[in-house]
């Protein structure tokens, strides 16, 4: 990053990277479905995830506004404690009810954190918006995330063979540790009328309305189809059933599935290194378009009986998610006012998680009936339509900006 970064920014940048490491040590990432299958069916998993994520989705809407109104630091710490607790409840569960309660607490905690942690660090770092420092930090953060996933996926796959509960316990403890790591970071924004409940509540509801309004604005509305389809798919793969369903479809065992994810992480780290070095030269429009079409093609490819070549599908989706994020994060952060940043980022998280609430039961059912191809084809078409809308309107957005200047 640039030489203009001061010591405080370096310190916070390092703390951000360590925070990203702890919050992405997902020891369960390649084995959670196999743990569930000990006790419940895939169709039950789909229903469980659909219901739990629906509740988390409801929590997603006000979470950013709560963070902006009452303190981003408080929401992040509470969220990580809840998410960690949700993992621990499921670790010691043995049936649908315990898994459902734990998953609801987990996704509610994740909803509280989403947007608030990024907004907190964006505010505290206070980078020059004209620089590429934030994009570079996001890219470096994605590399740390991938290293964390690489290590935890392999370790989690191995620990699953010893005791399927151990990866869940470790996930819970690392999330709680992440809250303790950032305990001294405070939201120091100057707030008017602090302490007046009626004023803060009014501000809270205004923030929610403003957050949704931003995604209807001229500068952001055409990103919504991309967020819903492309990032929605990433969410369905990363947090939902689809990754493990695809690994199963390509005949990978639980341990080999963890190796596939780890290899995808390792290669993606290298890709992100190149992106970090060439951050100023890379075009947002070209990057988003290329990743979106690559992901759509990978869905079409996964319809065929390709066996171990399915590694390419997993890799493309995996690499796409982590290279896509810095660009969409930069767009939203730069187009949003400081006081509503967590709200808008939370609404973006809401939009990307919305499809999975509907898709989880469908994917579970289709996989049980061996008809997953219907979903794969349908979603690939939706992604292509979203890219068409984005390309058609991105050019108009550039022209409008030039005229305004």
Search tags:
single chain; 405 residues; mainly alpha
Description:
α4 runs antiparallel to α5 (96-113). The radius of gyration is 20 Å and the shape is globular. The longest helix is centred in the C-terminal third of the chain and has 32 residues, at 373-404. Helices cover 77% and strands 0% of the residues. The protein has 405 residues and is mainly alpha-helical.
Q: Please estimate the helix content.
A: over 70%
From the helix content, strand content and strand pairing, which structural class follows? mainly alpha
Q: Stretches where pLDDT falls below 50 for ≥5 residues?
A: 398-405
Note the total helix count. Answer: 16
Strand content: under 5%
The best one-word shape is globular
Overall mean confidence score, pLDDT: 84
Give the radius of gyration.
20 Å
Helix-strand string: HHHHHHHHHHHHHHHH
Distance between the termini: 28 Å
User: What is the number of strand segments?
Assistant: 0
**Main β sheet profile:** none
């Amino acid at each position: 990053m640039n030489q203009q970064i001061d010591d405080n920014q370096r310190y916070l940048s390092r703390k951000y990277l360590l925070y990203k490491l702890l919050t992405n040590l997902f020891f369960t990432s390649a084995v959670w479905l196999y743990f569930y299958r000990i006790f419940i069916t895939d169709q039950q998993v789909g229903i469980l995830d659909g219901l739990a994520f629906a509740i988390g989705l409801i929590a997603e809407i006000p979470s950013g506004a709560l963070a902006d109104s009452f303190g981003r630091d408080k929401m992040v710490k509470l969220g990580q404690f809840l998410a960690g607790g949700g993992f621990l409840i499921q670790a010691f569960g043995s049936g649908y009810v315990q898994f459902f309660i734990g998953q609801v607490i987990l996704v509610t905690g994740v909803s509280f954190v989403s947007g608030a942690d990024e907004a907190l660090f964006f505010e505290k770092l206070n980078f020059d918006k004209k620089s590429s420092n934030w994009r570079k930090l996001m890219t470096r953060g994605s590399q740390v995330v991938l290293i964390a996933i690489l290590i935890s996926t392999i370790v989690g796959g191995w620990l699953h063979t010893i005791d399927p509960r151990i990866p869940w316990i470790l996930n819970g403890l690392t999330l709680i540790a992440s809250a303790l790591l950032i305990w001294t970071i405070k939201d120091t924004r100057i707030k008017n009328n602090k302490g007046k409940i009626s004023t803060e509540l009014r501000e809270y509801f205004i923030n929610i309305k403003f957050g949704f309004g931003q995604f209807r604005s001229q500068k952001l509305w055409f990103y919504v189809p991309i967020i819903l389809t492309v990032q929605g798919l990433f969410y369905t793969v990363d947090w939902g059933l689809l990754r493990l369903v695809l690994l199963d479809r390509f005949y990978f065992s639980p341990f080999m599935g963890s190796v596939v994810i780890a290899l995808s992480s390792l290669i993606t780290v290298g890709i992100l290194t190149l992106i970090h070095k060439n951050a100023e030269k890379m075009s947002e429009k070209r990057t988003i378009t290329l990743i979106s079409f690559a992901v759509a093609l990978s869905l079409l490819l996964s319809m065929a009986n390709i066996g171990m070549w399915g590694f390419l599908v997993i890799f493309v989706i995996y690499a796409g998610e982590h290279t896509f994020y810095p660009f969409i994060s930069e767009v939203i952060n730069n187009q949003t006012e400081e006081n509503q940043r967590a709200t808008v980022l939370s609404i973006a998280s809401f939009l990307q998680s919305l499809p999975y609430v509907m898709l989880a039961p469908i994917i579970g059912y289709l996989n049980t009936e061996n008809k997953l191809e219907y979903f794969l084809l349908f979603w690939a078409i939706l992604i292509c339509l979203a890219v068409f809308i984005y390309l058609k309107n991105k050019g108009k957005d550039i022209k409008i900006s030039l005229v305004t200047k």
